[in-house]
Design goal:
seven-stranded mixed beta sheet
């Protein structure tokens, strides 16, 4: 006898109303920021990021704790400065996203340069699609939108926001720049379908995973639970895994870096291969973060899940 899926309890009308009002307010503010001159929007974003560093004590503490793990040999003052700059980077990124989704079409994409595109074209020539390895680094929403510069369709697996109204706004924005969204609950079927159609599927592999979902691999010298989904998808589909990341340059432009496909371990030992390949993916992300640490998402508890045998 199959187990019935438990239905979520109904959301009270008052909460739905509040959620809708908040979403409309956020969208209105985003549209306003999106119409500002680029320099003004960037200054606003940087200022709001600095304010967030001062006011959001819990997130500031998480960022400082993470930075101490990654760069424990640096002085406390240097870590605080790096955390502050990472908050400012997130503020500028938020302002850029407003311009991306609500500003003049294509304006921000005109400030994106792509290097290494032949690596992607060679991978796509295998006619298996491509799995794109990426991270919450640089302006990752702009990176997703920049897929139009490659000429190939892009699908992304998304975890819906807790706010249905805000999720609807964000989904419209992402679809508006040409993304195909795959809900996490339908990930396997959606990814296989997208690859079979000759598309690309983006996977951000730098977030904490649960014990069930992840494997422990080194990240900045400490074991981090990392989703094994990308390694499993590569095993199942045979699609090449191509690292694609974006970074903001000092002049305000953006550079997309496409690396050669990752050589995958295929020993026949499924679990060992998943572990080795996930570790290889994580080393690539670490290399990019190490080069431009202020552009990574330090406010996330990356090392939250710990190995069961860790004291």
């Amino acid at each position: 006898m199959s187990r019935r899926r438990r239905r979520a309890p109904p959301v009270p009308a008052a909460l739905r109303w509040t959620d809708g009002v908040l979403a409309r307010l956020v969208e209105a503010v985003a549209k306003g920021v999106g119409r500002l001159p680029p320099a003004t929007a960037d200054r606003l974003g940087r200022g709001l990021g600095a304010l967030a560093y001062r006011c959001l004590g819990r997130r500031r503490a998480i960022a400082l704790q993470n930075l101490a793990i990654a760069f424990g040999d640096r002085a406390p003052g240097e870590l605080r400065d790096l955390a502050r700059r990472s908050f400012q980077h997130l503020g500028v990124t938020a302002a850029e996203c407003c311009r991306l989704f609500f500003g003049p079409p294509g304006l921000l994409l005109g400030r994106v340069q792509v290097e290494g595109l032949p690596h992607l074209k060679a991978a796509m020539a295998q006619e298996r699609g491509a799995l794109l390895l990426s991270a919450h680094f640089g302006n990752w929403e702009l990176l997703a939108a920049a897929h139009v510069l490659t000429g190939y369709p892009l699908s992304v697996v998304i975890r819906p926001l807790d706010s249905p109204a805000l999720e609807a706004v964000l989904a419209r924005c992402r679809e508006g720049v040409g993304l195909q969204l795959i809900p996490k609950r339908e990930a396997l079927r959606g990814v296989v379908t997208a690859l079979a159609r000759g598309g690309m599927v983006g996977v951000l592999l730098d977030q904490n995973a649960t014990l069930h979902e992840g494997v422990f691999v080194p990240f900045f010298g400490r074991l981090a639970s990392t989703s094994k989904g990308l390694a499993l998808l590569a095993q199942k589909t045979g699609a090449p895994v191509v690292p694609v990341l974006i970074r903001r340059e000092p002049d305000g432009t953006h550079r997309v870096t496409v690396d050669p496909p990752v050589p995958l371990q295929q020993s026949g030992d499924r679990e060992a291969d998943v572990l080795a390949n996930t570790a290889a993916f994580t080393r690539i992300i670490e290399r990019h973060v190490l080069a431009h640490p202020e552009q990574w998402f330090w406010v996330h508890r990356r090392w939250k899940t710990r190995p069961p045998d860790e004291g």
